[in-house]
Please model this.
Amino acid sequence: MPEKSPSVRDLIRAEYEGLTPSERKFANALLQDYPGAGLASITEVAANADVSTPTVARMVQKLGFKGFPQFHRALLDELQAKVSGPTQRRAAWATEAPETHLLNRFAQAVTHNLAQSFSHVDSASFDASVALLAGSEGQLYVVGGRITRSLADYAFTHFQAIRPGVVHMTSSAATWPHYVLDMGPGDTLLIFDIRRYEQNLLRLAELASERGVKVVLITDQWTSPVARVADHAFTCWVEIPSGWDSNIATMMLLEAMIAAVQEARWPEARDRYEELDRIFDQTRLFRKPGGG
Model:
């Protein structure tokens, strides 16, 4: 499938080392409120970042844009992509769909998503997140949104077998204050949030962070607003030839985290697995191989 154009955020990260101090000041202001800080006129954008208009113009050109209007259009396109629903998503790919079978287009899209997602994972941030998820000095809270709650459920099932103190938060935001009540320093909150982002998840992350909780976010390439609060944020590419986004790359990253946390806690995790198997044997929930 055709290569997707990099986002403005990606361009800033790629060119950041070559920016002047004043250009970095504008870049930081934009990244802190992305993409909103770049959606006004060039004079307003410069004033809000406390830099000059020429500074904005120079940085925009360093990112590869002919001028501010093209830069502004790119940010608007990203914003539109972030808020689009299933109908708009299907229309976007259907108008450009190649004359090949859906299975082939789907496979190409998924392969592209996996490659992009894992190429953007910072290994140091990944290792730091694994240390938080594996730590036993506090609780690990796991929560997802309307679509991503299935990922949260999957994460809980595995992490709860690996380590103690894992809490699966319900999908009802009305119950979250009860969980926040017990949160504190040493705890970790793992959040899944993809477009269209849920305001309740952002507020939950803010409340948890205010109580000293470390926040780990898994989101999509447009990046949930929760990233502003998160200690570590991971972006996964999710577009496929469908009205819905794909969780395949997101699941792959989660699988990698689960494997890493398991290794970080081995042999304690092994002991929990063995004890869990003994309990399952007592409940007779599963049929043993060769059983009648």
Observations:
- The chain has a mean pLDDT of 86.
- The two ends are 50 Å apart (CA to CA).
- Residues 102-119 form the longest helix (18 residues).
- Strands lie at 140-143, 166-168, 188-192, 214-220, 232-236.
